[in-house]
Amino acid sequence: MKIAFVDCALNKLDASEMASQICQEKVADVGLARFTAPEVLKVPLSVKRMLNEGADVALVFLTVSGEDAASLDLIREKLIDVELETNKFAFVTVVFDDEWRTPAGLAEAAGKKLSAEIDLILNTVGGGSLSPRQEPEAAESLGIPGQEEEPAPQGGGGGGAGGTGGLGGLFG
Known about the structure:
Elements: E1 2-8, H1 16-26, E2 31-37, H2 43-52, E3 57-64, H3 66-86, E4 90-96, H4 103-124, H5 136-141
Parallel strand pairs: 1-2, 1-3, 3-4
């Protein structure tokens, strides 16, 4: 699996080596390709570029201050567009300024978050054992509902103006 690691030149921590080490500890055959966006608003374009160049999934790492926090919602929205266009996932790891006080605290917070995000990537994209579609017994033991087809609700909704169309019993 090839993971695109996208960070920002304005980050307060260069976490690419940390992410690479975490990946190698978890799975030996994972490659990490890095691209550094020049600014935080260029992250979605950088992710799209890496996914189009052959990465299977993207891992974004950002350190965000109060002034950049407003941009984060826009970045996440644009990343959803990239996911829909490329049909590949982009996972985002953010360490906010209020989560750390020292450089060691920043590195610790980043390490914990990156490790959790890489686990999520491996379980989602890498065919991990937590996928309910692949391992229904494991999923059920974790409280994840099964993937059985449920019958369509009868009645309710209607398709006219003001109706809920095919959403039937969801709003009634």
